[in-house]
Amino acid sequence: ATKVAACEALHAMTLLMVGRNARRPDSTDDKSGITPFHLVYRSLFPVILDLAADFEPVTSTLFRKLAFQLTRWFTKNQVREAAETMALLDAITLGVADARFGVKRDLCAALAAEALKWSIKQMTDVQNAVNVKSILRRLYSLMSHPDSNRRLGASSAALRCLELFETQDGSATEILKNHILEMLEVTLRSFRLASFTQSKDAAEDATARLSRLVVRVCKRHARLLMQPSKPARSGSFQTLRDIVVWIFDDGVARPERRLRLESQYAFCVLYPTCEFDIPGHIDDKGLPFTSDLFDEVKNVNVSNTIIGPSDPAKCDAAISWLNAARSAFHFARWSLEVNILPSEIYSQPRHLGIFQNASEYLLQFEEDAAINVGPSALRKWRRSKVDFLLQVLLFVHTSITKLR
Fold first, then answer.
1. Of 88, 123, 159, 320, which sits 20 to 30 A from 25 (CA to CA)?
2. Omega before 288 cis (within 30°)?
């Protein structure tokens, strides 16, 4: 009873502050959006979100409704970096990144989508969508964080926001066109933070769902995205063709397994929608695994480094080599399966370096010696070796099938 009474008192005081604050959330004395209650809100909003995710039904129901009402109210403020709106968005961002409570993380993901929805509804100028940009920037920052819980929350929130974009029209379509390429770029870069192992986690799965939805949206709006936008789109790429070229150069043969798979999916879906001369591009820049990423791998001494590494440093180098070689064979097999490259291209001298090293390794494979490293490193080395051999066998099978 005491807790419920305290919650009702806090709820009433919050409504009183909002009511006394101004007739509108943007009616302030200056252009920064600062009001007398600004510092109070900084401390109050995180508490409201904690109570909205409380296990006690009365408390959670009371403050969950209040959290959504506050989100709709403060997103009316279209002043750039308005202090009180930023206080609310900061609290939502912290909740999205919460590693302890999945309930709070899901609530804040829903609030981020709600803030985006009402920002679009109450927006007066598409080119000045300050709240939309602020929400997306916060999510992009979390998606690039090493902590998998933050990436999980950000990917879930971004997924809800993108689904919201898809159900809206008019100004929402214009905003989507300006931000979707950057969302695809950030999503794919997020996979680089994953490990090389076959293990999965919730953050990877959530990011993969987001990535595939972004790719489908890009395909649906391909005609619009093929044309440069004025003013320029956010992010590093201005047209769909630009990001497809980047995916081919820096994604489809990456050592990170999940990034490689999602990049290959994105390329297969988006490549037919744009004009991209792959043979000419390869003549100019080479295959993806002949980039700088693989230079040290191609020049490695297989006999001294890869075969039975004798210390932890050499074991790490051996694992890196096996992962890079595995990704090269995976790319080669994939390119033959989807018919984007002819098999003859892999016989060209400039593309043979990593295949020659792999051949040398396979010839000495029976002479593999026991390695003197810890059990954890030994398991990683053996797993990488098996994954590499599997990709070699699959590549050989695909090559024989294609040449038959």
1. 159
2. no
As a three-state string, the secondary structure of the chain is CHHHHHHHHHHHHHHHHHHHHCCCCCCCCCCCCCCCCHHHHHHHHHHHHHHHCCCCHHHHHHHHHHHHHHHHHHCCCCCCCCHHHHHHHHHHHHHHCCCCCHHHHHHHHHHHHHHHHHHHHCCCCHHHCHHHHHHHHHHHHHHCCCCHHHHHHHHHHHHHHHHHHHHCCCHHHHHHHHHHHHHHHHHHHHHHHCCCCCCCCHHHHHHHHHHHHHHHHHHHCHHHHCCCCCCCCCCCCCCHHHHHHHHHHHCCCCCCHHHHHHHHHHHHHHHHHCCCCHHHHHHHHCCHHHCHHHHHHHCCCHHHHHCCCCCHHHHHHHHHHHHHHHHHHHHHHHHHHCCCCCHHHHHCHHHCHHHHHHHHHHHCHHHCCCCCCCHHHHHHHHHHHHHHHHHHHHHHHHHHHHHC
Distances (CA, A) of 143 to 42, 165, 183: 24, 19, 10
Distance of CA 313 to the CA centre of its chain: 31
Q: What are 274-305's pLDDT values in tens digits?
A: 888 888 888 888 777 655 545 555 555 555 55
Q: What residue has token string 């988006």?
A: 270
Q: What is the pLDDT of residue 29?
A: 47
In this prediction, residue 404 carries a pLDDT of 66
Q: What is the pLDDT of residues 99-108, one digit of tens each?
A: 778 889 999 9
Contact 373, 312 (CB under 8 A): yes
Residues 25 and 22: their CA atoms lie apart, in Å, by 6
**What does the pLDDT look like over 134-148, one tens digit per residue?**
889 999 999 998 888
What is the reported pTM?
0.84
